Amino acid sequence: MNPRSNTARWPLLALAFALSGAAAAATFDADWILQAVARPAPSRTVFVELRQSPMLKQPLRLQGEYRRETDGRLVRQVNAPYAETTTLADGEAVVERSGREPRRIALSQVPELMAVQAGFGALLAGDRELLRKTYDVRADGTREQWTLQLLPRDPRLARSLARIDLHGRGAELRCVESHPAKGPPQLTLMAGAAAAAAGVTDSAALAALCHGSAAR
Amino acid sequence: MTATPGTAARLGLLLAWIAVLAVAGWALGRGLRMEEDLRRFLPTPRTPAQVLLVDELGEGPGSRVLLLALSGASPEALAARSQAFRAALSARPEIALAANGEQGGLDAIPEHLRPYRYLLSPTLDTQPLDAAFLHDELQQRVQDLGSPAADLVEPLLPSDPTLETLRLAELWQPANAPQRRLGVWFDRAGAQALLLVQTHAAGFDSAGQQAAVAAIDAAFADSAQGLADAAGARLEISGPGAFAVAIRDRTEKEMRWIGTADTIGLLLLLGLAYRRWSMPLLGALPLASGGLAGLGAVALLFDGVHGITIAFGFTLIGVAQDYPIHFFSHLRPGQSPRASVRALWPTLITGVASTCIAYATFLFSGVEGLKQLAVFTIAGLGVAAASTRWLLPRLVTPARRDPADSRVLSRLWRGVERLPRPRAALALLAVLALAVVAFAPGAFWQNDLARLTPVPPADLLRDAQLRAELGAPDVRYMLALQGADAEAVLQASEKLPSVLRKLQADGVLDGYDLAARYLPSIATQHARQAALPDTPQLRQALDEALVDLPFRGDAFEPFVEDVATARAAAPLTPADLAGTPLELAVSGLLLQGTDHATALVSLTGLHDPQALAQAVAPLGAQLLDLKQASESLVAQWRVRLLAALAVAALLLAGTVWLALRAPRRVLRVLAPMALSTLLILAVLRALGVELNLFHLVSLILAAGLGLDYALFFDHAGDDRSEQLRTLHAVIVCSLTTLLVFSLLALSSIPVLRAIGGTVALGVAFNFALALLIARAPAAGSST
User: Fold this and answer.
1) Which domains does chain B have, with CATH numbers?
2) Averaged over B487-501, what is the pLDDT?
3) Do B161 and B496 form a contact (C-beta atoms < 8 A)?
4) Mean pLDDT across chain B
5) From B79, B105, B154, residue closest to A108, measured CB to CB
6) In terms of pTM, does the model score above 0.95?
């Protein structure tokens, strides 16, 4: 098995999570959002992730939580429909499944991932400048209902990843919507949106939850 | 008195001579095929290990492997550099293979071979492709789809739901690979990124290895682009090829300063001795002509000239440098140069002829290298002597002064004449020397070729460390299985892994690699085909496995097709691998001749060769010790050389006898060189030096020099002026030779030290003993 974390989806999502939950500032722009969602470690948040594939009868729906540890490790723990823990540290992802040997995956193996990781690392360090070197960052909406668009600057990265949309309200990051270059967008609902998604199976309703357009 | 030719004629002849040499040198430089493999210089192989070593391997597959380590930056930066470096290396034509642990993934397996995965992978040997197995695998795939790696895995799933392709790619990673961090190999401490490189050039091909090392350096420099963090990273290269390049560089560097010092020294010495600046140039022409003639003769009579022939040959014809010196020292006013050389010729030709007759014995030694050496030296010495006799006198203007008029020399000679002829003391010295030679402690002979071009201990230690970290194959030991064809040896070698794994567990060895790991025998492939379910069976198993899984029912149709293809396909043979990345791995370990084949098993970290040899012997595998095989060849070479030398000594004595026809004179001429040889041996043995082939060849040169010294002293007879001229000639000869070879003796390279030290000692002993023994009884002292 040779899974490479060849996707921008979850590291960024974890990053966004890590940064979530700061106090509101006076003006609204990308900087405001980035500052607002930043939160000191350790912290945790639940997520609901939907994975679509033409091979599947219906989208795969994962539930679990993201944790950011004080030592800088990021953990993605899937609780249902199966148990799996992925730990991200030192440029490496360690995937543990019950009853099996842990697998180690390097984030640096693919040039695209290097860029992702650089942007990721930069954000963790609060280095917005480096993030802006990796992505073209655009903010949209209001403080109450905002969208942050990340567009990869590296053309090689852009070949596999069209863009990432982060949706949120105030200091809360509610959804990460990753648009691969090919195929449907993949959604990860977080925090309040994840809680609201309980029992919701209709994909249109879930997409509405992600975009924040659903009534509360 | 003959008229000397005019200046214009002399200049014309000189230029013509130089032109001929230049053209010959150019033609030889273009047409000469140089062989670098030392084994080609050795005798015909006898034992199986020798045969394999010489005829098939050249050297083991391990000799082509270079170990690379990157250090001096953060692990992240090193990993990035390692990736860029590997990519740059793969683009180089000198590099056959570069691995750094990055999984080539699907690139390792060409598209048309993919259905063969079920025949190549051992997975299904223990695990039938049934509903339970498929269910477990597909459950894993669901998790893979929900993982960050989904985008990578998803395209593979329809045709390969068990991810057999990736399992094969992983299986084909170098055996015993080091730990992978950040996607590339790192040492255990995590401070160095490691890479393995296989060169196209063989390990002994130092020119090819030099090109490969240069390519690696260039690729390393290229890989720094755009990686600011890793710009300060250091590269270390280790392995047989790198050592060969390092020693070659070191030898060239030392030879450069030694050559420069020699040139200056020789110019000064000859200029001082003859007070004419044309002499050093003219004196170099016979030796240069001899060297080129020797090379030309070997090129004409043999397929290629061995590098060692050239090294040994030029050492041996070094004696020809003395020919013009004898001639120059016998020039005197009032006698034409041609008359001088004519008077000298009988003595000169006695030395040349007896030496050449002695070397002719090498022709019958049955060793290709020695035959080449004989042709080289005989042609070289003959041409050098002939050009001294017939060409040089036409270029030299008559002398303005006679060395015999030198007051210093006269005084010196009177001192020499007062010396006793200590027969009893010399006989005692001979006995003492013999005793030292016989009884000095320590090994007499040095057979280990590697010790001649030694690697610094620190580098060797580093190599062992890297080799252990990288699990790189042992360069000394390997297993060999012989059989009628590739299929036979593949089948035989498939029985080995179970034994080897047990030995691995017992700590006998750390790891191994064999061709059957990449290409199973046809029999095994047939067995795997038979174990594959047919299409209805597979469909049923798949349906059963999919019952509680979220996959669509028709999602795995391509998989069903692939299995059907694999069931019906003709098994893969080595020929089918041509052009794939597997070709290299298999061809290095599976040697196919016209009527037989050999499968090799490369070994890693062999701790107990004896135990391994015993354990694999019942399976028909043989442990090869390449070092022992090459040492036994060296020993064989030496036995032949010594036998040839014994005959040569008798022939030489006979020739001198024929020329001189007086027992006392023959004894006076031969005794100094015999005693000198004994004394050199005694000194070397007393110093604890183990003798190698280079010492032997140097001893032969020293004996040749000694013979000439003694012959010329003998030739001078009791004529005072002749004695003084001969003294002048022998002093100049021995000083020039001493200068050249004592500088060589200062070298840090054992080969050069062996040659230099032996010849320098020989010159000193031969000079002293020739004076003591060979000089004619002074006129008047006996009357």
Assistant:
1) 1-31+276-401 (1.20.1640.10), 58-242+459-474+522-589+605-623 (no CATH)
2) 93
3) no
4) 85
5) B79
6) no
The reply to whether residue B152 touches residue A106, judged by beta carbons under 8 angstroms, is no
What interface predicted TM-score (ipTM) does this complex get? 0.80
* φ, ψ for residue A50, nearest 5 deg: -115, 130
Pick A1's closest partner by Cβ from B83, B166, B555. Answer: B166
Tell me, what's the pLDDT at B777?
A: 63
Query: What is the Cα–Cα distance from B169 to A1, expressed in whole angstroms?
Result: 9
CA distance B371 to B302: 9
Instruction: Let me know the angle formed at the C-alpha of B721 by B716 and B726, rounded to the nearest 5 degrees.
Output: 45
Do A3 and B147 lie within an 8 Å CB cutoff?
yes
Q: Taking CB atoms and an 8 Å cutoff, what residues of chain A touch B146? A: 49, 51, 60, 62, 78, 82, 84
| Cα separation, B252 vs B246, whole angstroms | 10
Domain layout of chain A by residue ranges: 9-211
Return the ∠ at Cα B533 (arms to B527 and B537), rounded to 5°.
Answer: 165
Interface test with B, best of A10, A13, A49, A55 (most B CBs within 10 A): A55
Q: Which residues contact A132 (CB under 8 A, 6 or more apart)?
A: none
- Helix H or strand E segment including A80: strand A74-80
Asked if B148 lies within 8 A of A1 by C-beta distance, the reply is no
Angle at B366 between CA B364 and CA B372, to 5 degrees: 80
A9-211 maps to which CATH number? Answer: 2.50.20.10
Residue B618: is the preceding peptide bond cis (ω within 30°)? Answer: no
Task: Reply yes or no on whether the pLDDT at B712 is more than 70.
Answer: yes
The C-alpha atoms of residue B557 and residue B160 are separated, in whole angstroms, by 10
d(CA B367, CA B369): 6
pLDDT tens-digit map of B377-401: 999 999 999 999 999 999 988 888 8
Which residues touch B716 (CB under 8 Å, ≥6 apart)?
B722, B723, B725, B726, B775, B776
Distance CA B50, CA B29 (A): 32
CA of residue B172 relative to chain centroid, distance: 32
Inform me whether the C-beta atom of residue A85 falls under 8 Å from chain B C-beta atoms: no
Tens of pLDDT along B650-692? 988 998 998 888 888 899 899 999 999 999 999 999 998 888 8
| Nearest CB to B145 within list A6, A53, A160 | A53
Q: With beta carbons under 8 A apart, name residues in chain A contacting B80.
A: 108, 114
